[in-house]
TrEMBL record:
Keywords tagged on the record: Cell projection, Cilium, Flagellum
Matches recorded under Pfam families: FlaF
One biological process term in Gene Ontology: bacterial-type flagellum organization
Protein's UniProt name: Flagellar protein FlaF
InterPro entries the record matches: FlaF (IPR010845)
């Protein structure tokens, strides 16, 4: 059995998926949990999954083995720090806005999926450009 670090974020069965597909599926599952959370308890659980997912991503991106270009790596680190902080802060709020987390996760999912599988209803801006834009905004709000 292969170790699946995304199990904590709710992705249990990876049945032959590539690492990018696993990560994209994890973002999709977390976003679904965030959107469908109706009670404060469900919201905290979904925010916990979001925090776990971003913690896994941060660990992978900060690793010496990470082969991403340094600019992209830095952008993802900024987004991850913003998302983990925002998740924790939202757990303590009665009615937190999850819009920023949902948008960032959707753009990460789109950037990880093959071009043919990307949602056609998204803006014409390439997903990686949106990820960089989010990272800039996250840096300003830190």
């Amino acid at each position: 059995m292969v170790y699946n670090p995304y199990r904590r974020a709710g992705v249990a069965d990876t049945g032959g998926m590539s690492p990018r597909e696993i990560e994209a599926s994890a973002f999709a599952m977390v976003n679904r949990a965030l959107r469908e959370a109706r009670t404060p308890h469900e919201r905290v659980l979904a925010l916990g999954r979001n925090h776990d997912l971003w913690s896994i991503i941060l660990k992978d991106v900060a690793s010496e083995r990470c082969a991403l270009p340094s600019v992209l790596r830095d952008d993802i680190l900024r987004l991850g720090l913003f998302s983990t902080r925002r998740s924790l802060r939202a757990m303590g709020e009665s009615a937190p806005s999850l819009a920023a987390l949902l948008e960032i996760n959707a753009d990460m999912e789109a950037a990880l999926r093959p071009a043919a599988a990307a949602p056609s209803s998204r803006m014409s801006v390439p997903p990686l450009a949106r990820v960089a834009e989010h990272a800039s905004l996250a840096a300003m709000s830190a």
